[in-house]
Design goal:
18 strands, 18-stranded mixed beta sheet, 2 domains, 280 residues
Length: 280
């Protein structure tokens, strides 16, 4: 049995283990994160107390480590507050470096981190028989941002996102794919296909910062920027002194309990199901 916490950050949902005796392996993480079959989640993080703050290890639902998940980091800070490991603010060590987090209120957390080191790079790739122009940049993890002129309800996120995510132009690691729209300079709408989840997620914190960076770069956005995610929550990106940005919004501990042996069930998908597709 493993004691777990379930958290949600603007629709990005996670399983968390606090100071586990040993980390679960990739197959266990994949089983636990499989929706409908087990508890389900976009990923899992491990949280441990450390000198001057906490250490966070983040795994996507495919079972493999990722350097950064900003919504996961905001949820990790909320869990540290919930457990009494910190009060009001905390420093988290992640695979992409140290992140400072502060509690906005009972259900919202803000993280602060440096402005992306490199400006967005415009590039055009072919996918699905069409050319797609977007902007590549690194926000802890790689992102490709595509501006979408019409309403985001018209975006074929699963189909097009899957093609772009593994496009050879992004090399073996691939990329996260974000489709964004700026209805006004102080508002952004976003949908994301996440690498490692291999599906659309209801929110993506690093994707929100990537989209914001593209909007600022192109003069389409200004701070503070209010961002609507697929989960229906609003995140806010603000500019801070010292070339830093803040990402603030929903982050909640929604459940805790014991993961039992039944959570490890992992049947193979039937032959008519797409490889890796969630059973939803």
């Amino acid at each position: 049995m493993s004691r777990f916490y379930k958290l949600s950050g603007s629709g990005n949902d996670f399983l968390a283990l606090a100071e586990p005796a040993q980390p679960p392996g990739p197959e266990t993480i994949r089983a636990w994160c499989r929706r409908g079959v087990s508890l389900g989640g976009d990923g899992l993080f491990l949280l441990r107390r450390a000198e001057g703050g906490v250490v966070m290890e983040y795994f996507n639902s495919d079972g493999y480590l990722a350097d950064l998940c900003l919504n996961g980091t905001r949820c990790a800070a909320q869990l540290a507050f919930h457990l009494g490991w910190a009060e009001g603010s905390v420093r988290l060590r992640t695979g992409a470096g140290e992140v400072f987090a502060r509690r906005v209120d009972e259900s919202r957390v803000a993280v602060e981190l440096p402005v992306p080191a490199e400006p967005p790079q415009e590039m055009t790739v072919e996918a699905g028989g069409a050319l797609w122009t977007g902007y590549q940049l690194l926000v802890g993890v790689p992102h490709f941002v595509v501006l979408w002129a019409s309403g985001l309800e018209t975006v074929p996120v699963r189909e097009l996102g899957a093609l772009l995510r593994r496009h050879p132009a992004f090399g073996p690691p691939g990329t996260n794919v974000n489709f964004v729209r700026f209805p006004s300079q102080d508002r952004m709408e976003i949908r994301t296909y996440e690498r490692g989840v291999e599906d659309e997620t209801l929110s993506c914190g690093s994707g929100v910062l990537a989209g914001s960076a593209v909007g600022i770069f192109l003069g389409r956005a200004r701070f503070p920027l209010h961002v609507t995610t697929q989960g229906g929550f609003e995140l806010e990106v603000t500019d801070l002194p010292g070339w830093r940005w803040s990402l603030a919004g929903d982050a909640r501990v929604v459940a805790e309990g014991e993961l039992l042996a039944g959570a490890l069930a992992s049947p193979a998908p039937p032959p008519w199901a797409a490889a890796g597709a969630p059973l939803a």
